[in-house]
Amino acid sequence: MNIISNLPEYVKPKNVGLMFFSMEPDKFFPYTQIDVVQFPDGLGGNDIIENTFKGPIHQQLRAALQFIKNMIITEKVIKHPDRAEADRFFNYPFAAIEEALSNAVYHRAYDIREPIEVRVERDRIEIVSFPGPDRSVTQEGLKHYRVSNRRYRNLRIGDFLKELHLTEGRNTGFKKILDALEANGSPKPEFETDENHSYFISRLFIHEGFLVDENKRSQKGAKKEPIINRKF
Length: 232
Fold this sequence. Notes:
- The protein is 33% helix and 16% strand.
- By secondary structure, it is of the alpha+beta class.
């Protein structure tokens, strides 16, 4: 598996071996973790829910994805009186989040002491990782979803994730995210970096069918309903 050095006088694990086969890779690469942070009342609210996932990087990825699937993803079914078929859609398609988060684990730099952060707000999910993409990826290309990466930062990590069926490589991630969002009827995503390529953000927006519920809650909070005394 080529996860240890082959020098007989100094046998030691390679970085990829520590990341996948050590139960505490953050001892060797600090902040090798995924933070899922929820802001149920918005960024200005008082409530913040934090969940941190550690361990071998493939296990923390799977654990974070399972948490998001169980706790964040919601399906809505809308029935219509004039036809038998109901409309079904999710607030976020899981396949898009899975691809975006897997790509963040694949392409982050493990010498940078910053975790991968999944920020869950009322109307969007942002996946933030450091640093940004390779120099061959331009901001204009990200804007139009035309990306052809010339270099892969962590080839050995990519090989393991591919064997575990968590990624495929070959610049297929953007297409998978776009296809999953389109199939769910979700808005198109945004991908952001800066001129120095120091960070990368994948931004997925909530399905507009769930925004209706948020608007109703806001209106109910702003208007007090009159109290009606009824005699039975």
